[in-house]
Amino acid sequence: MSNSGEMTIYTKQGCPYCAAALKHYTEQGTEFKQIDIHDTPGAKEEVLKLTKGQEIVPVIVEDGQVTAGFGGG
User: Fold this and answer.
1) Rounded to whole angstroms, what are the CA distances from 65 to 13, 38, 41?
2) What does the H/E/C string look like for 21-72?
C-alpha cells in the first residue's frame, strides 16, 4: 500500500463518531495512529489548536488536512 502521508485520529472513549471513524479506516486498510485526548498529555490542547478552539472529536489529520468530526463512511 502506498500511503504517502500519515494519518492521526484524535479520539475519546465512549464517542460513537470516533468508533465509527476507527472502524471505517480499519476496514479500508488505512494505517493510522490513534491518540486518546484524555490518556495522552497535551492531546486535548493539540485538538483545540487544530480545530481553532472547537471541542470536537474525532479530529482526523491526514497529510496536513484537518477534519473535525466524522459523518460516516
Assistant:
1) 23, 23, 22
2) HHHHHHHCCCCCEEEECCCCCCHHHHHHHHCCCCCCCCEEEECCEEEECCCC
pTM for the complete prediction?
0.89
Residue 34 gets the label, from left (phi > 0), alpha (psi -120 to 50) or beta, of beta
Domain residue extents for the chain: 7-68
The CA dihedral of 6, 17, 70, 57, to the nearest 10 degrees, is -70
Confidence of residue 33 (pLDDT cuts 50, 70, 90): very high
* Residue 34 in this model has a pLDDT that exceeds 80: yes
The CATH-assigned architecture of domain 7-68 is: 3-Layer(aba) Sandwich (3.40)
